[in-house]
Model the fold of this input.
Amino acid sequence: MSDALSDVIGQPAAISMLRAAVANPLPSYLLVGPAGCGARTIATSFAAELLAHETDDAERHRRLAVFEEHPDLIVFERNGPSLTVEQAREIVRAATTSPFEGKRKVILVEDIHLAFGAAPMILKVLEEPPPSTYFILTAEEIPTELATIASRCTQIDIAAVSPQDLIELLLEAGIDEKRSSVIAAVSNGSIDRALLLASDDAALERWASWQQLRTTLEGSGNTATAAVDRLLTMIDDAAVPLQDRQDRERKELDERADRFGERGLGRRSLEDRHKRELRRLRTDELVMGITAIGISIRDDVATGLIDAARASTSLTAVTEASDDLRRNPNERLLLQKLFMNLH
Done:
């Protein structure tokens, strides 16, 4: 494997800064960019280079880190609406232990903008990190209450991946131009999401179902419930390509274990990552659906099929659903509430 950062697309400025930091890194880095911008991939790629630097077997360290299987790469991801105080304690504990291999340990903390009550404890370890520990934090934004944490880090701005970059990536993967354009438009700038949709023949059908949803609703609870059931079943089906990919990754892990004598290494972290990916997929599917509904409302306003007052009520419901989605809500209740307020 070459430089792990070379596989990142659409972020030349950020990658240049991170490459320059590998040899003499600062204690903490904060990657800031919108949802789906690829911050997780960039963070793990940077971690791979940090852990591979000046080691006897750089390729092995790089490979394990990219797959999030390296014993000295510890990933923290919120399990609910925010990072908890309990997770903050675990971050502090992990930061103070020595690396298992090599001279460096990397701690990756996602969604630091949702740390809330955990922030003071995380701030303390950022202010006094052990010399062998490096932090990589990701955030969609920097709220005022987390400005102090941001000030302790070197900030790297991550731009949303442009639709054109995604189209070029999909074309290189053998996807035809028409389908590439549609997938790029509904991927919200996410490379992983675009590649997953490219392997999913039913993706565009689901997009169409969400766009046409309002034509099937009549204001009754029974109709809304039936629509919710149908769309949640489609989301369940949408997980199949990801589950197939995860099955291949398990087999590849076993093959690498046989080849390099690393049996058992990374199995737990792989399973944890798979669970996170499945949760993220469901959220991405809901974001795609809510986006499709919003676009359909705006299209109907433009063509005169819906008046401004009804459109405003529906778009308010869409906005509220989008906001609620960030707090890991009950999917069924969220959709039922949204569908009952659409016109």
